[in-house]
Design a protein that fits this description.
Elements lengths: L1 H9 L8 H13 L3 H9 L1 H18 L3 H12 L4 H8 L3 H17 L4 H10 L3 E3 L9 H13 L5 H5 L20 E3 L13
Antiparallel strand pairs: 1-2
Helix pairs in contact: 1-2, 5-7
Pfam family, one: HTH_Tnp_Tc3_2
Protein name: Transposable element Tcb1 transposase
GO biological process, one term: DNA transposition
Length: 197
Amino acid sequence: MWSMAAQRLTQITHPAATPDKLCERVEAAWSAVSQEHIQSLFESIPRRVAACNNRIVTAQRKHLDDFLRGRIIGRLECGRTQLEIFEELGIAQSIISRLWQRFQDDATSTTVSRQTVYRRLGHIGLYARRPVRCVPLTATHCRLRLTWSREHALWTPQQWSCVMLSDESRFSLQSDSRRTLIWRAPGTRYPQENPIE
């Protein structure tokens, strides 16, 4: 509607003498817009909104980089729904669905060597490392340790001399090469998800 009003105003050759005259011309140009044109603009709003949404989806499709594709596939493999991923990442469900279908098609028809996987993971900064081994401490363990330390806090050196302290060496009755590896980035040895209990 503004374009129609502006078109009428540009057809006027002589400039307005005062600001009030300019306001009168704008009001006249605005009033000259037909009701049929206003109605057709109103009826075209859903079509225009759909076109905008299509442009947004197309833009999203163009800017879906490998990292984002990996995040989406990883979430789907972990059992997340497409709707949850849409709500979290703001990627249209149709794009998520096509990406998942393409991934499943590629996964069934492509054989990749172990070395290729290691090399690709290395390119993004993930390397095979032995995980840190730790003993899981529950709330009960913590409470018992605190109680024990409070009971023995006032022991004398003579009482402690009767106690033999040993290290917590790991013993195994079966062959265990400790070759369990995890893929992690350098400097991420101790985050909660990396140590093995």
